[in-house]
Amino acid sequence: MSLFRTAFRPSVLTARVRQYATEAAPKTKSNLLPLTLALGGVGGLGYYVYATRTGAASPPLASALNPDEFVTFSLKKVVPYNHNSSTFTFALPPNTSSKLPVASCVVVQAADPEALKDKKGNPVVRPYTPTSAADNTGEIEFLIKKYETGVMSKYIHSLKPGDSLKIKGPIHKFPYKENEFDEVTLIGGGSGITPLYQVITHALASPFNTTKFKLLFSNVTEEDILLREDLDALAKKHPKTLEVVYLLDKPKPDWKGATGFINADVIKKYVAPPSQERTIVFVCGPPGQVAALAGKKAGFQQGEIGGVLKELGYTAEQVFKF
Ligand SMILES: Cc1cc2nc3c(=O)[nH]c(=O)nc-3n(C[C@H](O)[C@H](O)[C@H](O)COP(=O)(O)OP(=O)(O)OC[C@H]3O[C@@H](n4cnc5c(N)ncnc54)[C@H](O)[C@@H]3O)c2cc1C
After folding, report:
1. Distance 14 CA to ligand 1 centre (A)
2. 66 backbone φψ class: left, alpha, beta (φ>0; ψ -120 to 50)
3. Residue 288 has what pLDDT?
4. What is the CATH number of domain 183-321?
5. How far is the CA of 149 from the centre of ligand 1 (A)?
6. Mean pLDDT of each 10-residue bin along the chain, 322 residues long
7. Domain boundaries, the chain
8. Which of 85, 118, 161, 283 could form a disulfide with 81 if both were Cys (CB 3.0 to 4.6 A apart)?
9. Which residues contact 305 (CB under 8 A, 6 or more apart)?
């Protein structure tokens, strides 16, 4: 799984190098040639590293997805992740990628719409956020947890390489803008980590990021924590801008981390108070957790702000439910 995402574009990079060159240029001296050459070299080298790591030197990729229609994709491989979750990789046409903006997800349905129907006879549709980068060429990857009583997750876990799934997107969630906030708290539960992971990996890939991210990630047991290695590696790489707090409902005796549900005390301890400007709280977890912390979602709509966050004084503008 690539941790490096296209968080900044070459045009932005060169513009910022240009801006830096203007600000850094001594105003009284007239011969700017050595400085210009030096900055040009630094900018060129920076762009070379950026371009080779992201493939930005190639022409922009076409999107394999359609926001208005389901497109059928073939399952390439399934790799078990833990006791109830697996990574599913679907093939995209050559030279295409998902091009999903941050933050956004896709919705999926069975390739045969007759195969999975809800009580009203409509095809079952569920949202998923890929764990692969938006510019991943030829593939899209999902980490999906199987719920024994779940309709779609159980169906996807029954698929074998060569089987198909219909995918539609992007479904826009929160239009993430670099450095719009001083602090972003991400509250996740179980497989609700994937939309939050999309935001974190995208934001931290940019050398210009100054936003501090705090992830409060709750799970039942240590074995349930998804993407832990990736999150720990990111926190190690970005100690000033990412803090990860794992909370377990049923920890083993040797667990040294936080325990219990995320409640008012946990929020008061870790989250910037509602009086602080330029902060936001993102919530994505099981429906019960979202309702208890931030109020019930109304289908794909936000629904009213409620729960613990409302009681602590957070407003609808300061909370986003995925
Ligand atoms: C924006 C977004 C992105 C998502 N991305 C992912 C992802 O990348 N990977 C992933 O595995 N899931 C993801 N989900 C959750 C996913 O959409 C489904 O809700 C989940 O797979 C269960 O669907 P189901 O049809 O199997 O279960 P359902 O038939 O809808 O529900 C069956 C039972 O499971 C419970 N249940 C439903 N959803 C959850 C849940 N999320 N947590 C705990 N219990 C639940 C229900 O209360 C019910 O009892 C995402 C959700 C959202 C909103």
Report:
1. 42
2. beta
3. 96
4. 3.40.50.80
5. 10
6. 38 33 35 48 47 53 96 98 98 97 98 92 97 97 96 98 98 97 98 98 98 98 98 98 98 97 96 97 97 95 97 98 98
7. 10-54, 62-172, 183-321
8. 85
9. 294, 295, 314, 315, 316, 319
pLDDT of residue 38: 52
What is the pLDDT at residue 16? 34
Cis-peptide into 264, omega within 30 deg: no
**Would strands 279-284 and 71-80 be described as parallel, antiparallel, or unpaired?**
unpaired
As a whole number of angstroms, the distance between CA 93 and CA 73 comes to: 9
85 CA to middle of ligand 1, Å?
Answer: 12
Pick the atom of ligand 1 nearest to 145's CA: 11
pTM recorded for the entire structure: 0.84
How far apart CA 235 and CA 81 sit, in angstroms, is 21
- Per-residue confidence (pLDDT) for residue 60, from 0 to 100: 74
Q: Which CATH class is domain 62-172?
A: mainly beta
The answer to whether the annotation marks 218 as part of a ligand binding site is: no
Sign of torsion over alpha carbons 152, 106, 322, 204:
positive
Residue 153 marked as a ligand binder: yes
260: alpha, beta or left? (left if phi > 0; alpha if psi -120 to 50): left
Q: Which atom of ligand 1 is nearest to the CA of 130?
A: 8
Q: Which residue, judged by its Cα, is nearest atom 31 of ligand 1?
A: 150
Give the pLDDT score at 50: 46
* Substitution site in 128, 152, 249 for ligand 1 pocket (most atoms within 8 Å of beta carbon): 128
**Pick from 209, 167, 192, 211: which is nearest to 73 by CA?**
167
Do the Cβ atoms of 128 and 106 come closer than 8 Å? yes
